[in-house]
Amino acid sequence: MPSKSYYDSSLQPIGFNLEAAKQLLADAGWKDTNQNGIVDKNINGEQVEMDLEYLATPGSRFANTVAEILKDNAAQVGINVRITPREFRAMLGEEVARREYQLYAGAAASYQLPDDFFPVLHTASNTARGQNRTQFGTPETDALIEKIQTTMDVAQRDKLYKSFQRIVYDEQPMIFLLSPQERLVISKRFKPQLSSLSPNFVVRNFVHLQK
């Protein structure tokens, strides 16, 4: 969260740039050699097209809208995205648990305690039941996560957080799309303490101001 002391504000959101995306694909060897609109690459002697399956929750209008937007944007740079309806819990228990997927969408909740990345981004959590579903991690990132867990000095811990954040920013193990915002309307008669957690104010500290 940007409100936390270890948030690195020097890391700007990655811009939407189709031409830059095309160049990155070309630099990695993905080019449309047969002029059919889909980039391809020779892998082990076989010409392979960039064709990705996107597992989308069928009952979620939001999830399917995101999937359609991604499919449309990907097509503009020569990537074919196939949207496959898949119930979320079943998907997590099968394709995602086996790490046999290419794309799927998820969400993460924030909390006010110092962030612990062990469950989501440590290699020890890359198991069928673990939450490191992107299989992200190196000895360097594992060491940073472990040091963050045990460093009590706030200033020193903040430096570790920022070092870890820069690596995640460069590697992009997940495509960070958005953080939704909600408008909170409260009468001037009250003085709330705002919170990033639902219902976005601290209920126990809700003060009623007398006139």
Protein traits:
12% strand; single chain; two-stranded antiparallel ribbon; alpha/beta; 3-stranded parallel beta sheet; 6 helices; 211 residues
Structural class: alpha/beta
* CA-atom Rg in angstroms: 21 Å
> How much helix is in the residues?
25-40%
Q: How confident is the prediction overall: mean pLDDT?
A: 91
Strand proportion: 5-15%
* Side-by-side strand order of the widest sheet: 4-3-5
* Uncertain residue segments: none
Report the total helices: 6
| Apparent shape | globular
How far the N terminus sits from the C terminus, by CA atoms, comes to: 35 Å
Number of strands: 7
Elements, N to C (H/E): HEEEHEHEHHHEE
The main β sheet shows up as:
3 strands, parallel
Brief summary of the model shown:
With about 210 residues, this protein is of the alpha/beta class. The chain is built from six helices and seven strands; from the N terminus they run H-E-E-E-H-E-H-E-H-H-H-E-E.
